[in-house]
Amino acid sequence: MTPAQRATAWFFLVMALLFTLQSVLGGATQHYRADLSSFFGINLAGAFPFNLVRTWHLQLAIFWVAVSYLGAGIFIAPMISGREPRGQKWLAYGLLGALVIVVAGSLLGELLAIHGASDSIWFALQGFEYLDLGRFWQVLLTLGLFSWVALLFRVLRGRLAVEHRGNMPWLFFFAALAIPAFYAVGLLAHPRANFTSTDFWHFWVVHLWVEDFLELFTTLMVAYLFVLLGVVAEAIALRLIYLEVILYSAGGVIGTMHHLYFSGTPVEHMALGAFFSAAEVIPLTFLTVEAWTFLRLGIVQGEQSTKPFPHRWAIMFLMAVGFWNFLGAGIFGFLINLPIVSYYEIGTALTANHGHASMMGVYGMLAAGLALFALRYLMPAARIAAGIQAFGGSRAEPAPGWPHDDARRFHLGLSLVVLLVGDCIVGAVALRNHGLAEFGILGLAAALVTRALARGLAAFARGGRRA
């Protein structure tokens, strides 16, 4: 473990905190759809109105995923190069500190803007979805991302000098470089410029950056993890990477036009956007099948190893990336991207369905998987077991199924608590807004759903223990 790799533990801690905050804000956003005036008697909207909570929810989705990606890149780079230059740890800490300043400053600026205390587009709010933050914070974030690429280059420089530019170390570096390069394109969108031009550059970030270049980095990270773990040959990983590059170049780039149907662009945008958006599910299907075969190959080879494979649950998250890429981005995207459908459904729950399933399903699952991969090195099982014993636990050595059996029991209990709380909230709302008979029907339905989910969770836990 290098010093910079140990420093990434703080990245993953910040990632977890931001994800928790984003989840809480998402719950508040959904509550506002049912009751805009109060939060069960508390005037939450007075301090945190709906548009502020939703803005923060979207911004934090970018921030917590980005923090995980940056930490994972810093963690994996020494594994690729076999070395780490001096001072890398302090540069990593500096990058993390800068990210925290950007997150806090942008959220504060949005709070001031929505409460009418500031109208600055530089320090408060621009008003673009996913680019709500002020331009000053946007510039700082772009510079921070380029600084991250510079940190990676410091580590990879020796390895890159002896590698062909078509091999995986260079592809890893190019994929990392594309993240700040195409995020910087968002600076061409200006809230006081022509709407057609502004919307065009805005959706370069929303679609082309998120759904193409983050996808490419996602594939590189998944493939490299398997190569580094020694369960997949580099030639197989390269084949998957180049397949994604070809398919996304054919469909994803032109498919960006489905965001531009009604913003004043030429009619060709509607024709090309409609076709490639409808056809985008085809390359996603190919990629999902290929990725699934790739992942299964890694799991089978890992199981055949004589040594215990410590990254099983990290791989499960990576498999979830492929599934949600197909369902969330492909199927749910296809349902809303045709022009006649998009005209009527924009802003409805179908848009949120596609956004959540693809953003959390693909990038969120990868962020969690990368964190799990790194934490298995940063927090070995024996060290955690010793810590448990020091605080009064009875287990000096980890049990054979640790930590997965404990994690299953924890998530089972947590899920049941969430279901119980959800039932109470549904019951309170139903009792307030419906008659006694309707309340009884809703209560029965909630009880049946809770029972079914509880049985499913219990069966999952039993199956995990048998495995």
UniProtKB/TrEMBL annotation:
Instruction: Output the InterPro entries linked to this UniProt entry.
Output: Cyt_c_oxase-like_su1_sf, Cyt_C_Oxase_1
Name the UniProt record assigns to this protein: Cbb3-type cytochrome c oxidase subunit I
The record's section on Pfam families has:
COX1 (PF00115)
Sorted keywords for this record are: Membrane, Transmembrane, Transmembrane helix
Q: Which domain of life is it from?
A: Bacteria
Does the keyword section mention Membrane? yes
**Which parts of the chain span the membrane according to its record?**
56-78, 90-116, 136-156, 168-193, 213-233, 240-262, 274-295, 315-340, 360-379, 412-433, 439-461
